[in-house]
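User: Is it possible to get a 3D structure for a protein together with its bound compound? The compound here is zinc ion. I've pasted both below.
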Amino acid sequence: MVRRSCPGALTLVVASFVALAGCAGTDSGVTAGRSTSAGSGPVMSLPGTATTVPDTDPAPADSSPPSTEPSTTPDPTDPSGPPVADTGDGIGDELYPALGNPGVDVQDYLVDIDYDRSVGVIDGSVTLQIEFTQDREQFTLDSLGPSVTSVTIDGDEVSFAADEPELRITPAEPIEAGDTHEVVVDFTAAPDGASSLSGLPSGWFTTPGGSYVLNEPDGARTWLPSNDHPSDKATWTFRITVPNDVTAVANGRLVGTTPTDDGEGETWEWREDEPMPTYLMLLVTGDYEIVESSTADGLPLVSVVLRDDLEQMQPFLDGIEAQIDFFETIFGPYPLDRYGLAVTDSFGGLAMETQGRSLFSRDDLRAPNGFIEELLLSHELAHQWFGNAVSPARWGDIWLNESFATYAQWLWLEHIGLTTVADETAFALENRQRGDGDATGAPAADDLFGYNSYDGGAIVLHALRLTIGDEDFFELLQRWAAENEGTSRTTDDFVDLAETVAGEQLDELFDAWLFGDPPPAGFPLVSAPAPG
Ligand code: ARG
Ligand code: ZN
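Assistant: Yes, that's possible. Here is the predicted structure of the complex:
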């Protein structure tokens, strides 16, 4: 067995998370790699348990009736507290209250943008098919940075106001709950990957040869007016216009390319048919080659690799199928309509489970069968079940993504003989005994991707497995993915399903392991080995 060592370079970059999380608890620790300029976002006080919310129809934080005419000027003479029930700001995400937009349920996005890296400006429009879930005289979208030039509803110009981080839109006629309208927002943006609400930078980044987006959790709103919250999934079309020598790639399947009228550029159209929230968007531009194949079962594999890297990346492309096969035996059928890798020329320490085609840095994929390589590749693939097919309903439920992908990564690494689950869980339990302030089930807003969301949370699953036994545990993971596919769920939903599958009350177990800081000192069953 190889106890991994943490490469120094990976601990230095600010957007390093999976690899760091894998190394956290060592001297490089969970604090390594955090953005020092981070944490501008509000840190809310957190309750002990997550709340259950509907997956497709997020309600506002309070239970007041749907707002009619939101006012932004509080009445100081009113003694009963804030006079306005809803200023249209967010849907009540305790970690990031401004995210999401009450009454707005986006069904489909068309992102139509021009981007020339040498100019550095995005110019375009986004068309949203919105089903309204409340009567509204005004509604908002999340927009923090884009400069909006016009908004239309069903083809007619309407008034709007940039009130960052919201874009406030006032339709000519009040909107009724249940109505669907087409909203088109024209905008420009000069993005710089500046948002770091979670402690890590997110948004649109440039690289030596192109660009990529890494939106999780709130980077989308920095370059695209949108309903930037994981509780709202939609289908997507991308039309990305780039200069002739550039390839543009987004999620889903390539519909086609069309030359621009002046002959100097090309529009690349991609379509994602699987419901997807904003944070899982893939959008890379650069000198990419599209590499297509399929698994023996017929699942399309579509990867994108820089032309110069084709040879270096081939072993990693060849390794995808074995990982999918392994996870399918444990987690059930691959839940989406395709998979692949997108390997950018970004700095190392970057990996993201962008839907249907995970994002990596070329610098992290060097040694075929290397520990970090296998860790990152399996981790992001596992997210397609845990995070992508089933997404978190609130950012405070992030362990449903990261702890699950980490446990899956351990299962894979054990399968190929690079570590054991026993070693990893013992190591992580020891680290969590130090207690660092935020428990797995209640992450701090500026530490969403901290140790306790990754390895520190994967041991919650291990404790559960030891309590309910392998048969129920793996049935639970399969049912979690299969029954909730296409939706966004809470921690309470997972606890409920665990209790159903196991046929026993598990609140005490989850309370102790998810919210205890530190958690219990030993795992169930193995905590008290027979003396002698
Ligand atoms: N979900 C990603 C990974 O595990 C982490 C993304 C961190 N966000 C960021 N803006 N760097 O697997
Ligand atoms: Zn992850």
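The mean pLDDT is 85. The longest helix spans residues 455-484.
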